[in-house]
Amino acid sequence: MAHRLPNSSAVVLNTVHGLDSTVDYFFMQKFTNYFPTGHFHLLNSAHTEPLTDSFGCLSWLDQHEPSAVAYISLGTVVTIPPAELMSLANGLATSGVPFIWPLNEKAQSFLPPGFIDNVKETGKGKIVSWAPQNSVLRHRAVGLFVCHCGWNSVMESIAAGIPILCRPFLGDQLVNTRAILHIWKFGIGLDEVIFTEQGVVRALEMVLKGEEGRKMRDKVRELKDLVNVALTQQGSLRDNLKRLMKIVCGCEWNSDKMLS
């Protein structure tokens, strides 16, 4: 790929112009046709996500104060080690922070004894097999995304204006975590890198109840505004898509029709 890039008609990145000015500058200097065109699923995500909410996540969120709930989703490729899963569950229980946690049946079997029953009895949390992620993240009650930091999840969090508690596992998740913590500064890492009960409690308290959390929300909302501008009718995302498709198809392209 590195050898072929200099001869490419266009270079397309799955990001939004302005999100990382260093990357933008580098690619604009190297390539005439540089098109940041991601994540165009965000163009209509608020309108096109299925309304199915069979587990009642959104109605449950309606009962909570703004920015009070943690949403936990650690991806589908890597299975969290049982010991970490137990530590995360114990941290949630100790903190008392309300949470939504999509978790498959096999993973649920590794939770601490009595944890699920206690969650149901107290109403402090909601463990489901599936949740409408974009809608949940955009809900006013959600104040933290506990995440593996895959790129799509990072962009969804930015688009919703939600800080991230980072637990990367592999690949680009490690690089994305570094950007979140040290460049954009809208997230928090774990002191021990992995989930521990004390580490989870500390992170939840800091983001959802502390001054540091307020600063993170301010940072990510600045990025959210940048992404929202790119998604407008005259924004860079639509413009880049039109320019890219003109190269691919040799004609003007009606992005409004194609993306509606």
Total number of domains: 2
Q: Uncertain regions: pLDDT < 50 for 5+ in a row?
A: none
Provide the spatial order of strands within the biggest beta sheet.
Answer: 5-4-3-6-7-8
Please write the CATH class name of the largest domain. Alpha Beta
**Number of E-state strands:** 8
**Relative helix content:** 40-55%
What count of helical segments does DSSP give?
13
Features:
single chain, 260 residues, alpha/beta, Rossmann fold, 2 domains, six-stranded parallel beta sheet, two-stranded parallel sheet, 13 helices, 8 strands
Explained architecture:
The protein has a six-stranded parallel sheet, sandwiched between helices. The protein has a two-stranded parallel ribbon with strand order 1-2. The protein folds into two domains: 65 residues, no CATH class; 177 residues, Glycogen Phosphorylase B (Rossmann fold), CATH 3.40.50.2000. It starts with 10 loop residues before the first strand and ends with a helix. Strand 1, helix 1 and strand 2 form a beta-alpha-beta unit. Helix 4 crosses helix 10 and helix 10 crosses helix 11. The chain is α/β, with parallel strands linked by helices and 260 residues long. The model has no long low-confidence stretch (mean pLDDT 88). The longest helix has 20 residues. The protein has 13 helices and eight strands.
